[in-house]
Amino acid sequence: MSWNRKFTQNKLQGFSHPLVKKIPVFSLQTRDCVCEHDLYSPEILSESVPEPQQLWDGTLSEEQRLEAVLFLAQEPLTAKKLTQFADLKDGRQVRKLVKNINERYDSASRAFRIYEIAGGFQMRTRSLFASWLCRLHEVPLEVRLSQPAMETLAVIAYKQPVLRATIEKIRGVQCAELIRQLLDQDLVRILGKSEELGKPFLYGTTKHFLEVFGLNHLDELPDRNSMAVF
Predict the structure, then answer these.
(1) What are 102-129's pLDDT values in tens digits?
(2) Helix or strand or coil: residue 109?
(3) Which of 34, 95, 142, 229 is 20 to 30 A from 81, comparing alpha carbons?
(4) How many helices (H) and strands (E) does the chain have?
(5) Torsions phi, psi of 119, nearest 5?
């Protein structure tokens, strides 16, 4: 039997549960009949999801607003954006609220907390749970780099803006293909062109590089003397 899924408009009138906006109601259609299942009937939701008034008095605190924004964010958000989205005063208040939320998460041994990464803030699971989360197909695969690629990336990270000729001089081998791979993985980007003869490209790292390695700024990189490539 072949099944076709078609999305239909939500016909509930006067029902404003927040989940209604998250997932559309759908019907399952076969050759013989139409089996329509309303996922958002008030009877079902009233049994499974408590109304907001049952959880608090209806007043959303600044901390709750910030937590909700971070929960939905797909990438690190700057303090300025969080101030705007959560209707807060300034970046100083954002940092204070983040600290309070993290203290609450830590005291309750939550599997996640808010990290300051790539110039912004993002809610992430703790690295302790990485091996468990890898079992989920929805979780993006971690970036895997060969040793030569990692060495090339290290040179770019510490020497940026840097020419390909400089990278190859430090490593002692050609790096054109490795640089291309790093560009494809959005770990490296072209910062501009040098004023040298031929105006070759200058390379540097990306915001995604900071996210992957859990860094907020480049000055958080390990001591360069500890890197074997140098």
Answers:
(1) 999 999 999 999 999 998 999 988 888 8
(2) coil
(3) 142
(4) 10, 8
(5) 80, 10
Do 62-133 and 147-226 fold alike per CATH?
yes
Sign of the C-alpha dihedral computed for residues 49, 53, 57 and 63 taken in this order: positive
- Write the pLDDT tens digit of every residue in 23-48: 333 333 333 333 334 444 444 444 55
First vs last C-alpha separation in the chain: 63
Give me the helices (H) in 5-90, please: 42-48, 52-55, 62-72, 79-85
Length of the chain as a residue count:
230
CA angle 114, 115, 118 (to 5 degrees): 140
Cβ atoms of 169 and 180 closer than 8 Å: no
High-pLDDT (> 90) share of the chain, % = 48
Q: pLDDT tens digits for 162-181?
A: 999 999 999 999 999 999 99
Q: What CATH number was assigned to the domain covering residues 62-133? A: 1.10.10.10
**Cβ neighbours, 10 Å, residue 164:** 18
Choose the CATH number for 147-226 among 2.60.120.200, 3.90.1150.30, 1.10.10.410, 1.10.10.10: 1.10.10.10
Chain centre distance of CA 95: 19
pTM for the model stands at 0.58
